[in-house]
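User: Could you check the structure of this?
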Amino acid sequence: MSTAPTDSVARQTFAPRDLAPEGVEQIVLGRGPHRLGAWRAEPATREPRSVLVAVHGRAMSPGYFAGPVAPHTSLLALATALGHTVLAVERPGYGLSRAALPRGLPLAEQARLLRRSLAEYAELHPVGAGFFLLGHSDGGKAALHLAGEPWSGATAADRLVGLDLNGCGWHYAPAAAHFPDTFGGGAGGLNWGPLRLYPGGTFRASRALLREVPAVEEEETGRWPARFPAAAARVRCPVRLTFGAYEGWWRLDREELAAMAAGFTGTRRPVVERLPEAGHNLSLGQAAPLYHARALTFLEECLAASPDRPR
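Assistant: Sure, the predicted structure tokens are below.
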């Protein structure tokens, strides 16, 4: 492993199956014992309009956002083409931090560590107008907590411009109430939905993305419905929520979605969208380009509404 002690971002040697596509760097975020791995993709100008922080879900890794089967489904490629840097982070307890955090961390502590890591990143690298969070599934839970961390907004380095969550709800659907195991095969229908929703080869390629779920994350799963209201109420930035039409993990009736949106009392009522012909793993499906385009359109709206945007 090579390190750069004077920089919060260092190059890291990863296992072969973690190799990022061309144009994407594998870096290290933070200092000290609890450093985090991340994939970084930068725009051609190297001066980003913002930094999009993509947070992977349960049992996943940063490659989830890189179009492992079809390049046109890559969030990294689309966001950088529009002028943004993307940091696809490994959550605490996954990847690089697994050795130091073998049991992982509770969601609130994940958020605090991610917040420190992003602050240290901003000390040494341009962040444009600030940070934009995009979280999938359990990564959405961590991103929601991260959005509730202190962000002064006094400078771009301390500014959170928006939060986009997908596949992350409030109350679990009856079919998910026993929390089936991803590796045991019981969660296949919940995670994917109909096979036609995904490009050919997706399921074979996705095996390389899978990681062991940290024990603390397993233990926290059942507590999420009780913790969502407080986490949502702490958010102050604009929020967007997306669920595939074939989402199986969450209750998504009209009353549930309205109650969920109403929980964001510290910001304007979130936009809630149901994406047709899409399952839980939106960024791996045929609908990925549509979802990513709409998430980045939301980012554009957040930037346009910012009082500090460049003229």
